Amino acid sequence: MSHPENFAKGLSIGIIMDGNGRWAKQRGLARTAGHKRGAEVFQDITRYCNELGVESVFFYAFSTENWRRPAEEVSTIMRLFGDYLLKAFDYEKENNRVVFLGDRTALEPRYQELMDEIETRTAHNTGMTLNVAVNYGGRPEIVRAAQLLAKKVADGQLRPEEIDEAAMADMMYTCGQKDPDFILRPSGEKRLSNFMLWQAAYSELVEMDVLWPDFTRHDLDLAIEEFNRRSRRFGGI
């Protein structure tokens, strides 16, 4: 499909991958089947974003609240994540920089080691930045930033009056990255679900009535077209 010039070039996109369980239930399958299909869609959409010239994409893979799900489902999601980590080295060849957002200390040590290695090996790549949020929550991220700044104050490295929005942004997992231009949520739901609460201050919200396992490249085209029709005023007129 041909696109207008600069159709998606330079965009920063947040994606809440939602609807895996419902997709499976509609087909009489175990919820885990939906997550497996969703993982395939994730890989295809990642490559498509890269082809479109997207600057960065943020995928919400596993939230801090998702631990409350049935043990079998959590185990499957983590196993799929482990499979992804092994495949992620392919993105190094595609010149993508890979960044993981969230508290990785709750994950298996072997996963933590792979995450560190992937980030190190892709750190100097100059293509799209692929962010994967795992054990991530927007509120915990803000609390973590406040704690880091409080420690700097306690250590005499910073004065309380020097804490401003820029200082907070520097303590976020997304430090140095552009905030998402828009956040996409498939599945018809209309909430952020604790995703990028700090960074989404002026992000456009795009909801689509399609479950993530059914999400296609054409659907992403439609979401970008919707965003491109928006008038962003950032509080102005």
What does this structure look like?
It is a single chain. By secondary structure, the chain is of the alpha/beta class. The protein has a single domain, classed as Undecaprenyl pyrophosphate synthetase (3-Layer(aba) Sandwich), CATH 3.40.1180. It contains 8 helices and 6 strands, in the order βααβααβαβααββα. A 6-stranded parallel β-sheet has the order 3-4-2-1-5-6, with helices on both faces. Helix 5 links the parallel strand 3 and strand 4. The two termini are 35 Å apart.
Please write out the topology.
Layout lengths: L11 E5 L3 H7 L4 H22 L3 E8 L7 H17 L1 H5 L3 E5 L7 H14 L6 E8 L1 H17 L10 H6 L11 E4 L18 E4 L9 H13 L8
Helix pairs in contact: 1-2, 2-3
The low-confidence parts are none
Please state how the strands of the largest beta sheet are arranged side by side. Answer: 3-4-2-1-5-6
One letter per element, helices H and strands E, the order comes to EHHEHHEHEHHEEH
Q: Can you identify the CATH superfamily?
A: Decaprenyl diphosphate synthase-like
Task: Specify Rg, calculated over alpha carbons.
Answer: 18 Å
| Count of individual domains | 1
Assigned CATH architecture: 3-Layer(aba) Sandwich
- CATH topology name, in short, is Undecaprenyl pyrophosphate synthetase
Total helical segments: 8
Biggest β-sheet, characterized? 6 strands, parallel
Basic shape: globular
The overall pLDDT average reads 93
Helix content: 40-55%
Q: What is the name of the CATH class?
A: Alpha Beta
The structural class is: alpha/beta
Strand runs, count = 6
Question: Strand portion, in percent?
Answer: 5-15%
Cα(first) to Cα(last) distance is 35 Å
